[in-house]
Design brief:
Elements lengths: L7 H6 L5 H13 L8 H17 L7 H16 L1 H8 L8 H17 L5 H13 L1 H8 L2 H17 L6 H20 L4 H24 L13 H19 L5 H9 L6 H8 L3 H10 L6 H23 L5 H12 L17 H20 L5 H7 L3 H15 L6 H13 L8 H10 L6 H20 L3 H13 L13 H11 L4 H19 L7 H20 L9 H27 L7 H28 L1 H7 L22 H11 L5 H21 L4 H16 L2 H5 L18 H11 L1 H4 L5 H13 L13 H4 L5 H9 L8 H21 L5 H7 L12 H9 L9 H12 L5 E2 L1 H16 L7 H16 L1 E2 L5 H19 L13 H18 L7 H24 L3 H14 L1 H8 L9 H23 L9 H23 L4 H17 L21 H14 L7 H15 L11 H14 L5 H21 L2 H14 L2 H5 L3 H15 L5 H27 L5 H17 L7 H13 L7 H21 L1 H6 L1 H18 L8 H23 L1 H4 L3 H12 L6 H15 L4 H10 L2 H27 L3
Parallel strand pairs: 1-2
Amino acid sequence: MAAVYSGISLKLKSKRTSWEDKLKLAHFAWISHQCILPNKEQVLLDWARQSLVSFYKKKLELKEDIVERLWVYIDNVLRSKKLQHLLRDGKTVTLQISLVKVINERIAEFSLSGSQRHVGAVLSCCQAILSTPALAVIYTTRQELLVALLSQLCWAACRQCESTAVALLFEVLHLALGHYLSIQQQQVNPRRAFGEVTGHLLQPCLVLRHLLSGGTWAQAGPGQLRPALSRELRGQLEAVLRGGAFQPELLSSYKEELLDQPPEDTKTGAMKNLLAPADTVIARLVDAGYCEPPLHAAVVAGSVALLYKLFLDSYLKEGTQLLCFQALPRLFGCLRVAHLHEGPEPALSTSDWTTELLVVEQLLTSVANNNIYNIAADRIRHGEAQFRFYRRVAELLVSHAQASVPAWFRCLRVLLSLNHLILEPDLDDLLASAWIDADVTEFRTRKAQEALLHTLFQTYVKLRQLPRLFEEVLGVICRPAAEALRPPLLAAGPSSALRDCLLDLPPSQVLDTWALVLEKFQAAVLPCLRGDVDMALKALSLSALLHCVLVHTRCPDGSTPLPVVRRTRAAMEQMLRELVQPLLGLLLAPPGPGPELWLQKVSDAALLLAHAWAQVDAALSLNCSRYRAASSGALTGEAPERAHLPPLLPGVEARRWRKIGKVAARFDSVGRYCLEQLYLQKMKRTLVQTGSQSEEALQTLRADAAYVLGSSRESLTQGTAAPWDGQVGTVSAGTYPVAHWHLVVSNLTILVPYLGPDDVRYLAGVLLGTLPVNGAQDGPADEEEEEPRFTLGKISEAVLRSPVFPELQSLHAAFLARLAEACAGVLCAGARGDPGPLRQQLPWLFEEDPGDVAPWEARLAKVGPEGTEPRGDVAQNLLSLVQGGFPIRLEEEPLGRLLGLLEVVSALQLDSLAAPRHAHYFLLLLSAALASPGGSCSPSLALTFLTACYRLLGRLQRAKSARSVLKVMYASDLCEIVLTSLFRACRGLRVDGDAAPWREFLQAAGTFLEQLLQMLVQAKHSLVLNFGKILAFLSGCRAYTEAAAGTQRQKRSPLGRQLLLVSLTALCRVLGPVVRERRPQPEAPEALPGLLRQAVLRTGAVLQPWAARGPPPAALIAAVSTLLEADLGQHPGPCGGTETSQAPDGTRLSHPALYRSVYSQLLAELPALAGDVPAFQAAAHFLTLFLRAPELHPAEEPVFAAVFHSVRRVLADPAVPAPAVQAIEPHLGALLAHLLEAGTTEDFRAVLQCVLQGLDLRNAWSADQPAILSALTLIKLLLNCPVSEEQESLFWRLSPQIITALTLQNREACQEQPVALAVVEPVLDVLAALLRRGEEAIRNPHHVSLAFSILLAVPLDRLKPPEYGRVFPRAHSVLFTILQCHPKVMLKAVPSFLNCFHQLLLSVMHEGRQRDKGSAEDLSGVLACARLVERMYSHIAARAEDFAVFSPFMVAQYVTEVQKVTLYPAVKGHLQEGIYLILDLCIEPDVQFLRATLPPGVRDGFKELHNDYVKYHRAKHEGERRYAV
């Protein structure tokens, strides 16, 4: 080999050596130890570098693959461990500038042309250089090379977004930015840093940041960028811009440029005069040559907000507010919207407006959040410079309204919050474009509009200038406009904003506003109203506004000053006399055959005002005695026909109302809805005044209720309605049915008592017809995601689930009748053949009036001990139909419709049905369950339908009238009918016996059968006869004969035998307790035990084949448990004094081999059952029963050890996840309790020894986490088990070892990376339980004090939000347990206790700080933890004598830490409420001590905290104490 390497330098330089051989020689020379060459590494690198440099300078011709291999060779050399070791040992290997220049040139070529030649290898070489500090010196010492590299990398990333090398490109860029930032921080020449950034890096950095923020590389693909790297790159780019363009040293230059301040000294003035930093940055920003025009506009817009943010971060401090403002107009001038007033408007699309307005919003929000604008200082010191700029922005926004863009509303809202005078000169145009003329449809835009209007109204309420605002509103409404194109004035958003402000308005301003609207209405609208459609529309808008003002202001009461009451009464009189009655008069005498629209809008306006007047008059009459006394008779211009009954409206006769009603009935709009409201208001006043005692009042109430209900029959029957937002002013032809139905439903308690039977049936029909059956929605799918709106379906569903619905007996009964009729209709439609015989056999399906329960009452009355009505007819008819194939067949569509109706039935309260209705519904549901699914029905749909039927039948069997079913047919007949039908259905089903739908169906059917048999036992109806017939049927059925003969053993899905097993199991489960209680049976005292014995034998015969084949299926374990329990019940053993026959092997039980087989199988399969909670529960129950049967126990192994070993296997099995263990813990606990009860003290000692072995520290070192978790779970289970005194004493003697082991395990788990929360969480749970249960047993304070070290070891600051939300409550629980259960230990270790609590407090502050990103779920978890901290503060404060000395230090800790973070207001609120309780413990010297000793910044925070404490907390509690006894 030495010969090979001889003269290597000459061979590499020789022209006769081929490049293939040169590369091989260079490669082996690098990796071989036999090549001895002076300065070999440098020689080889220089050879490869020189070759590449010569090639790119056209001095050497090379093939493309040779060039690629040369780059790869350099890359391999730079990345080799050999070179890294050499550099670490101090050997010098230098790179030449020529290589770095070639790398920069290749990246520039890639950036400009997109050429992919060698780019991957070049970038890889660059990455290797930058990631090695000794090699990166070539860039860091020659800053111009690094700047050029950065610039080209940024441009390459921006221009070659789709390149396959983009991921590597970003990694290189990340390294280069890191190096440049470290250089920039050490830069002593601010001009050079500024020049580098603005001259070379500003434009590419801004473009790249814009693309990163827009998620250009977020989509999956070869160029996908990791989110973390994207965030880091954006942060680095911002840091580069801040460090270059906004250095602290440039502050004086910015002041000189922006504020026209002379330089502070001549020495530095010359340098500063050369800089105009703001103009330079802006000039580079707006330069149009560095990217395409569409991208350029977006980059400029996004960069304006970024640059202003960086400017504020660098220079905002006390005294620089004016400087920070002066940068704002210059940056704002970069936006396209800033130049709209200069000439022809550029065509900006909606997306352009959205982009630009979002930037304007960010700029204005920065001003507001940083307190840059001070109104007084701006006016006095700066000649309103800021105000004038904000006025220009406001004029721009108002003159170029963009009501479809949410940011436009938000910009106006920020301007309004800065100073309301900014918008006041344009208030009318603002109201028009942002509210009255704005057609806002999109949800986010509506929310932004609502927020703007809310701020607007609240601002003028606080200024006590709401009438001034209303003057502008009225002016905008009444000025000429295309009224038909205007949206409703008071939709949900504006109405909500106005409502909120009206509650805070003083009565005088309410009256002033009221008077303004009345005056405007009378002066501008009423004189021109006749025949003018536009004026009619204006009248409706003014009516809606006045309605909102009147209805949502505070109502005067007895404490209201008399002048206000008199003025209110005068306004009411004026409104009725001069406005309402003239408008109603126009309806009585319309001006000829005018347009329908005019008549509709005038009737809407008139009736809306009449409704508002009546509502306010009723409220005033009830709440204000002065108004009532003064207005008795004063408001009635004409006496009504019935003086003792209230009229619809004073001064309007009943015959006139009939004419008005005819006009309103022509339109489905506001007027019709308000007329219904008037009739309802009349009913309420009638009930209040007369109590509905007289016949005349009853007739009036019935007539009014019938009018309200019948007003919209045709609208509701159409079946189409648009969602309604709940505002009176938005009722239209589309939303009127929903509004009407909402009105009826909201007043059912008033209407239903006065409705006739036909009306009640109609109401029930509408209720059923509008329910969303089968999950159908009557509104848009995304409606719930936006805002709550009323729909017919939602309203009806609310009625169905309301607790008031069953109290409305007539409506409830009518609804049940209509529902039964609908179900019967579906069943009758599926009948096959001649319906005549079926009408005789199933009469309940063909009733003409399902609401008439008299026939059922008569039938049930005849049934009894001496009754004449036979109970066998119904059963015989049903049984004959079932045996011959039930004549009702339901295809997929009717079956789905019936399933939807059954969902409605399930929503009803079936427990309180009367006996006739109960029997009717039972037979109806039974008929549905007996119906055959058609060929178009899938097996899953058929099973879902059957499951729903039998669940409802089971619910009926739990109702109070359940025994009424036994008056219709015998229980044995009913069981035979149901089982015959189910066995037939099983033969036609093609489903897997272990499928979830089949298991649900089996559970529902078994539950129904068991409840039916339980009802039979409770009713004591011929138990022996009924149980005997049921058992005989099951013994003779085909499924049993096949099971006994073993013909189904080879079938994969024996559905019929599973159903047979469920039936026999239900029989055993019911008969067993009856036999155990030994109830005397006069017919045959010993017959029931015999029946139980037969049932046990037959159940065992069915189960035996499964046990012989292998492990029993999960669904059958419960059957084996029931069988064993029944078998044990019929053989009480020697203690019971009853001699029983024994099995051939000497046992008392019927199937010992089956039980032993299942026992051994369950021991082996117990871990596999842990994922199925019902199966595991059944297995645990079986093992518990097995423990009670000593004759079954095997002799070769003790049962205690075998069962406990299986339990440990379950807990230590890695395949069983922690959630599954938590789900089965109650069943494990029950099994362990019975196990300990049956075991000895030595067995208990062995259990404790297993616990200590599981907590051995060697398990943590060997990463045997399942062993640790099983030990922890065992401790939890043992703490909840009832044990003997000897066992309890033994446990608590070992508790110190357990606590010490927990401490060591927790320490090891917390030191892992990441933290082993799977161990930490149960350790904390076990520790809290130990301390709680050991309140009297743990006597050594040291063992309790170990809990503090466990808590302090938990790293709460290293957890993710979901993990934190799980760990924090556990740590708090441990600390709270020590405080409550071990107060003496806590008193001796108060510092340790407070250290633990302080760690909890710090963690809440850390998690509750305001961040850019975070979900609502994370914040809700932190809020729950903050509440726990507040609660702990309250417990500490309750022990004032123990913690009084430490209270100042707790306050000092809190104030010191809270100064370091900005918390979410909700989190801070909880923590403040807690620290207020600690401040209650501080006496005045403590407060003075804190003020004197706290550092200056913290001292200010404490002063603010103490002031809030005095102002809010102490004042509140002193006020409460004033009224305390």
